[in-house]
Fold this sequence. Notes:
InterPro entries: aa-tRNA-synth_Ic, Rossmann-like_a/b/a_fold, Trp-tRNA-ligase, Trp-tRNA_synthetase
Largest sheet: 2 strands, parallel
Distance between the termini: 27 Å
Keywords: Aminoacyl-tRNA synthetase, ATP-binding, Ligase, Nucleotide-binding, Protein biosynthesis
Family: Belongs to the class-I aminoacyl-tRNA synthetase family.
CATH architecture of the largest domain: 3-Layer(aba) Sandwich
CATH topology of the largest domain: Rossmann fold
Helix content: 55-70%
Strand content: 5-15%
EC number: 6.1.1.2
Order of helices and strands: HHHHHEHE
CATH class of the largest domain: Alpha Beta
Shape: globular
CATH superfamily of the largest domain: HUPs
Structural class: mainly alpha
Enzyme class: ligase
Amino acid sequence: TMPKEPAVLRQNILDTTAAILACGIDPKRCFLFRQSLVPEHAELAWILGCLTNVPRLLRLPQWKMKRASQNNEGTVGLLTYPVLQAADILLYKSTHVPVGEDQVLHLELAQDIAQHFNKKYGEFFPVPKAILSEL
């Protein structure tokens, strides 16, 4: 949600890809792609954002903490980031999502959005369940 220098962003993408491959992810057995090249993520985020009310987003603790760290000048991107996360999950009709405790509220938002969408337009998105990681 913070602007990045293009060269730094490109290097971060390469570094992240290298880390994923170093962890043993086999690109012959899974899909490995750059999410920013899939326009449907942003398109679905826009649609879902039109179904999500601002007060719901303002109650998220991550928004409150980040906004405080930015001298109470949080950006629209920061506010709507959880809707983009919901789009990332729902686009692939995910049924289960591995999350840490700090992301449970964002997954709950994705669940709420899926339920709202399904109620309005008919059953389309599965309501994803959390798989909590154990440390």
